[in-house]
Amino acid sequence: MTAASTAATHLFIVTGTSRGLGAALAQALLKPGNRLICVARSRNPELERIASASGVKVVWHLQDLSQPGPAATWLGSVLDVVEEAPASVTLILNAGMIEPIGPVATLRESTLVPHLLTNLATPMTMTASFLAHTERFGCPRKILAISSGAARRPVEGWSAYCAGKAGLDMFVRSINAEYAQAPAERAVRAVALAPGVVDTGMQATIRNADFAQVQRFRDLKDNDQLASAEDTAQRIAAYLERPDFGSTELDDIRNT
Ligand SMILES: NC(=O)c1ccc[n+]([C@@H]2O[C@H](COP(=O)([O-])OP(=O)(O)OC[C@H]3O[C@@H](n4cnc5c(N)ncnc54)[C@H](OP(=O)(O)O)[C@@H]3O)[C@@H](O)[C@H]2O)c1
């Protein structure tokens, strides 16, 4: 990459961009003055085509984010080759999974541990890497963790997801507490943002699962009451630009 291509652009790292909300977020951020680093385990050729037509610089990485160590190392190495300090840098922790769904008594290490690694441990190690490898930029830094209403109230059958997202909420609060007194050049603002009920593959998985409230999610779909990924992503992109970003550390896009 050349110095000219990186100077004074707003740099975004977005996880889980192959589909769903993450793909829509990447698309919403395809604006002049931005550049994106996108990561998931699979590719989205249509989105890659849209991105190249937009003229915005985007790099696509394939990385399994259920492995917190390699994910952190990967992010550090990607940030280390950014030659010119960006105008701002934002980490969007969007990648996530819903399964296992089922009673607490059926939780098993084989599915619970990969879930918590993906939804909680990797966002934590990636944040650590982000903080360590962006300090040299001396620019405004933001972290947006895509949370869930399920972080804040239990859903029967979603104990892994509720616990992981609640952990992510508390992690965001911990970042803000730690950086509250940081000088401007080291400052970080973090938000855990619930996106509402969004029409993605994750919702299809939920509708096909067996748990007490499943009919509510089937009804939302049948009654066309799901938010679209595109609308939600546009609202989140606008949220990121708010001057008071970080003032409400646990937020819900439906409140905005
Ligand atoms: N949809 C909703 O109603 C809703 C509501 C509340 C919160 N959320 C949250 O919003 C975020 C996005 O959800 P979504 O609905 O868009 O889900 P989705 O359609 O299932 O997409 C999930 C994304 O995460 C990536 N991902 C999952 N596991 C990964 C792994 N091990 N390594 C790398 N990437 C991985 C997937 O990419 P690959 O499979 O290609 O790796 C995919 O791009 C999640 O954090 C979710 O918890 C969603």
Report the CATH topology name.
Rossmann fold
Radius of gyration: 18 Å
User: Helix-strand pattern, N to C?
Assistant: HEHEHEHEHEHEHHHE
Helix tally? 9
Shape: globular
Pfam family, one: adh_short
Keywords: Cytoplasm, NADP, Oxidoreductase
Protein name: SDR family oxidoreductase
Subcellular location: Cytoplasm
Fold and architecture overview:
The chain starts with a helix and ends with a strand. The chain has helices spanning 3-6, 20-28, 45-54, 68-80, 109-134, 159-179, 201-207, 214-222, 229-240; strands at 10-15, 34-40, 57-62, 88-93, 141-146, 188-194, 250-252. With 256 residues, the protein is an alpha/beta fold. Helix 2 (20-28) packs across helix 9, helix 4 (68-80) packs parallel to helix 5 and helix 5 packs parallel to helix 6 (159-179). The chain has a single domain, classed as 3-Layer(aba) Sandwich (Rossmann fold), CATH 3.40.50.720. A seven-stranded parallel beta sheet has the order 3-2-1-4-5-6-7, with helices on both faces. It binds NADP nicotinamide-adenine-dinucleotide phosphate. The site of NADP nicotinamide-adenine-dinucleotide phosphate (NAP) has 28 residues, from helix 2 and helix 7. Keywords: Cytoplasm, NADP, Oxidoreductase.
